[in-house]
Each structure stands twice: as C-alpha cells, then as structure tokens.
Design goal:
Blueprint: H1 7-14, E1 22-27, H2 32-47, E2 55-61, H3 67-76, H4 83-90, E3 93-97, H5 103-120, E4 126-130, H6 137-146, E5 158-162, H7 170-181, E6 189-191, H8 199-209, E7 223-231, H9 240-265, H10 274-286, H11 293-299, E8 300-303, E9 305-308, E10 333-338, E11 350-355, E12 362-369, E13 389-395, E14 399-408, E15 414-423, H12 424-428, H13 436-445, H14 454-473, E16 482-484, H15 490-497
Parallel strand pairs: 1-2, 1-4, 2-3, 4-5, 5-6, 7-11, 9-16
Antiparallel strand pairs: 7-12, 8-10, 10-11, 12-13, 13-14, 14-15
Helix pairs in contact: 2-13, 7-14, 9-10, 9-14, 10-14
The chain binds 6-O-phosphono-beta-D-glucopyranose.
The site of 6-O-phosphono-beta-D-glucopyranose has 4 residues, from loops.
Length: about 500
C-alpha cells in the first residue's frame, strides 16, 4: 500500500520547531501520571528535538528525595534506547520537596526558579503542571498567586495545566473556575483532557473539515443516529478509592465522551485558532438538551460489574476490588441517549456508552446513515436490510471504516454488507507516542486549541448534573448487574431497543 506521508518525513517536518525557553514545574513529580505518561512524553519531545536548549524541569512533591535520588527515579521511567537524550534531560532536572498547602514551599520555589532562569536562560517562563489530587488544584493556584509566581509581564509568560477531574459536578466546577480566575487569566489556564492528545481524536476535525465529501451529508437529513462507544476491559485497577467516589459518569462523560461528541457534532470553525474551535465545541455542548427527571429514567442506564471470566480467567467483582466499599453503589458503566437541539442535529439521537470490564477495549464513533428511501433489492434472496455506517475508530484499532451494500458475486442477485477500511498503522506505521507529547508541546508554545475552556467544562457538567441528581435520589436496586467481560447490563440493550435500534456489534 502506498504510504502517503512516511513517518520519518513527519518527524523531520516537526524538527527544528522547538518550543521557546521555559521551566516545566511539575507538581506531583513522584506520582503515577508523571511516571506513566508525562516523563515518557517529555522524553519523546527531547528525542524529537522539540524542547529548547534553555529548558529545565523542576519536580515538586511531598516525598523526601535528594536531587540525585529524584534524577535516578526519573531515569527509571525513561526508555534506555537513547543515552544522549537521557543525559540531556537528566542534567536539566531539579527537585523541591514540600507540602502543597505550605506557603513557604512556594517562596522557596520562587527563589529556585529565579536561579534556574540565570543558569538556563529560561527567561522567567514557567509552565506549572498540576499532576496532583483534585483537592489541591484550587489551593496550589492560590499559592502561586500569593507567591507572585502566576504574574505575567516583562516579556515572560506563566501558564498552569490542570488535570482532570475538573470538579465533581456543575457547582464545584464553577467554584473551581471562579477560584482560579481570581489568580489567572483564562488564557493562562490549560485544562487538559488526554483524549485531545490522541491522533485519531484530532483527526475527527481533519476528516470532517478537510474533505468536502462528508460535510454535505453530516446532518439530520442523512444521519439516522450516532453511537459513541468507549469500552474498557480493565477494572478500576489501583484506583478503587478514587473511583468509588467518582463513578464512570463523572470519570468519563463530562470530559472524554463530551470531547468525542463535540468534535463529531460541532459546526465548522472559521479558523483553526484556539477560540474559533472552542467556540464551536462550546456551542454544540450547550445545545445538548438537558434531561429532566423523567427523561433520566428513560434515557440513562447505569451498571456495575460483577465477577466474570473474560479470557477464561476469573476477575473479581467491582465490590471486591481494593479500595471499594463492600456495598458500593458506584456505577462502572453508563449508557445515555442525548439529543442536540440545533438545525443540524434535531431528531438525531446520540447514544453514548462507556464502561469498565466490558467485552473488548474499543473506543469508536459510529455514524449510522439513513436507509435508502425505497428498498429496491428488498426481494433479493438473502437480502439483509443494511445501512451505511461510518466508524471513526479511536483506539486501540485506529482508523476509519465505511460499510456499504454490495452485490455478492454469483448468478443470483444477492446483497451483502462490505467494508472500506483505512488503518492508521498501515499508512503511517506504529505510533510510539503517549498522546501527551502534543499537549505538553502546545502548552509550551501557548496554543490552547486542544484544551478545555471554562465554558466547555461547565457545559459538560450541565449534561451530567441532572443524571447525577436523579441517580443520587434513586439508588440502584440491582448492583452488580453485568458480568465482567460482557457488554454491560441488559438495560443498555433495551435503551436502544425501545427506539427500534441496537448497539453496533463490536467483534471480540
Ligand atoms: C481516565 C479515567 O481519564 O481515562 C480512567 O480516569 C480511564 O478511568 C482512562 O481508564 C481511559 O483512558 P484511555 O486513554 O485508556 O482511553
């Protein structure tokens, strides 16, 4: 198969555009996210020569570590394939121990950063990354303000990256937005959602807005409904204590699932500038009809996994996971039917489902087109009525597939469904990136397109809040209600069946 843009060419094209001088100040430098994602992503940026020479990383955490111990710890999480890049990064690592609630940490930090500026010519540009527990988001930002570290001016910038979850409902998200906006301008705030770092998620926009053939049919006249599936096979792993307070609805829907939905349903932006794109995303999120209590009962499904034997091996029920309450009522599966109240989408339901311990890991957006107005081949033997489905495969398979009807070869006229497939890996080779590279790089160059604005975050919570309220008032009666390794509770299928539809069959 012809390779359109060879990977090497892409890498060369990116080279030479290193970000400007800065210090990356990493709060939570000994945490899980740092080890699993942020350090490998930074390392990939070093290898791609996208970090400037005038760069340093200041790790901050409560752990009592010497500088050497911190440097050794970081090195452990870097691939060993490129000694030069490892040494490059190691020489630029620094560490400050402290309690995030303690003001003296921030004045010490200010002094250390000023020294680094002198030594590394980082020019007072600081990127503060809050890879910390959500309860520290507001307090750390306040402390940065008090210590004068958030103040931009004299040709230097200050930016703050905030991880998810951003709030636990609409009210707390608004309160957090209010609190951080007393210290930071909106353009200094980078609310991160790692789904926007995924190539296939970014490609939704390219697919829709750089190809003239799809946009004319991307609306209620041609589309019957849309299904967004975000299925995981893993359970809660080591995050039981966090997850048991959050649940799948909060953990996945206002952020990741809403990103997928907004990119699929938004209007074409007037440019690719951050606010032009985010205006359109916010607009479509605001157009989602909030569910009233009765609709929540009819259009939402929750589930919790019981034990099961997904690959022939027994896995425990959610309630038996470490950190989870023995009688937990927290959901690990959600299905929702949403409607978007605008001209493009009126009458086109968006069905969403996401859950843990499902039958297959698969994230995809399936656009189900309408049937032909008249079924010409309805009397053909073996004719199965089929529809055209366009599937944007986000992960782990990355690609796009279009199914359509074709004549099955032979003397009889028989119609079957066939696929036209594009696979990323075949065209572009395997992707060794974590998804965080582009996000970290964008923060350093000040491009906020792939970050959530305050209004987008709040719009996501507006969708979820009424469901949270009804679910809280009416605790689930029958948890667990699906076995690990299945496609969730029977009610999820009923949600579709009541509209005469069914979830797309995702082959194991
Ligand atoms: C995180 C959630 O934000 O996203 C996790 O907190 C979830 O519960 C994860 O497993 C899914 O991310 P990905 O990239 O594996 O789809």
């Amino acid at each position: 198969m012809e390779t359109v843009v060879p990977k090497q060419a892409l890498e060369l094209e990116m080279a030479g555009k290193a970000a400007g001088p800065c210090v990356f100040v990493l709060f939570g430098a000994a945490g899980d996210l740092t080890k699993r994602k942020l350090l490998p992503a930074l390392f990939n940026l070093v290898k791609a020569k996208l970090l400037p020479n005038d760069f340093a990383l200041m790790g901050v955490s409560v752990d009592d570590l010497s500088l050497d111990a911190f440097r050794d710890q970081v090195s452990q999480f870097l691939p060993s394939d490129d000694t030069e890049s490892r040494n490059w990064l190691r020489d630029r690592l620094f560490y400050e121990r402290g309690d995030f609630a303690d003001g003296s940490l921030f004045s010490r930090l200010g002094q250390r950063l000023a020294q680094i500026d002198l030594e590394f010519h980082t020019q007072g540009n600081y990127l503060f990354y809050l890879a910390v527990a959500p309860k520290f988001f507001g307090p750390v930002v306040q402390q940065l303000g008090t210590a004068g570290l958030s103040q931009q001016g004299d040709g230097h910038w200050r930016r703050v990256v905030i991880e998810k979850p951003f709030g636990q409902d609409l009210e707390s998200a608004k309160a957090l937005n209010r609190s951080i906006s007393t210290v930071l301008q909106e353009n200094q705030i980078y609310r991160i959602d790692h789904y926007l770092g995924k190539e296939t998620v970014q490609n939704i926009m390219v697919f829709r807005f750089d190809n003239a053939i799809f946009e004319p049919i991307w609306n209620r006249r041609y589309i019957d409904h849309v299904q967004i599936t975000n299925a995981e096979t893993v359970g809660v792993e080591r995050r039981g204590a966090y997850f048991d307070h959050a649940g799948t609805l909060r953990d996945m829907v206002p952020n990741h699932v809403m990103q997928l939905l907004s990119l699929t349903a938004m209007e074409p932006p007037v440019s690719f500038h951050a606010d032009a794109v985010r205006d359109e995303q916010a607009k479509v999120l605001h157009s989602i009809q909030p569910l009233n209590s009765e609709e929540v009962l009819l259009r939402s499904v929750r589930g919790q996994y019981g034990e099961g034997f997904p690959d022939g091996e027994r896995v425990p029920a959610y309630r038996a996971e470490p950190g989870v309450a023995a009688e937990s009522r927290t959901e690990t599966f959600v299905a929702l039917k949403l409607n978007i109240d605008n001209w493009r989408w009126a009458g086109v339901p968006f069905y969403l489902r996401t859950g843990k311990r499902l039958a297959k890991r698969q994230t995809e957006i399936a656009i189900q087109f309408r049937r032909t107005p008249f079924q010409l081949f309805r009397n053909a033997p073996l004719h199965q009525p089929h529809t055209n489905t366009l599937v944007l495969q986000i992960q782990p398979a990355e690609g796009i597939a279009l199914s359509f009807g074709a004549k099955i070869p032979g003397p009889l006229l028989r119609v079957g469904s066939v696929n036209m497939d594009f696979e990323y890996s075949q065209y572009f080779g395997a992707d060794a990136y974590t998804g965080y590279e582009v996000l970290l790089y964008d923060c350093m160059i000040g491009d906020a397109t792939l970050f959530q604005r305050s209004d987008m975050v709040e719009a996501g919570w507006c969708v979820v809040d009424p469901v949270l309220d009804v679910w809280k008032a009416l605790p689930p009666r029958r948890f667990p209600n699906y076995a690990s390794g299945t496609w969730g509770p029977a009610e999820s299928d009923q949600l579709m069946a009541q509209d005469g539809r069914q979830w797309r069959r995702i082959e194991p």
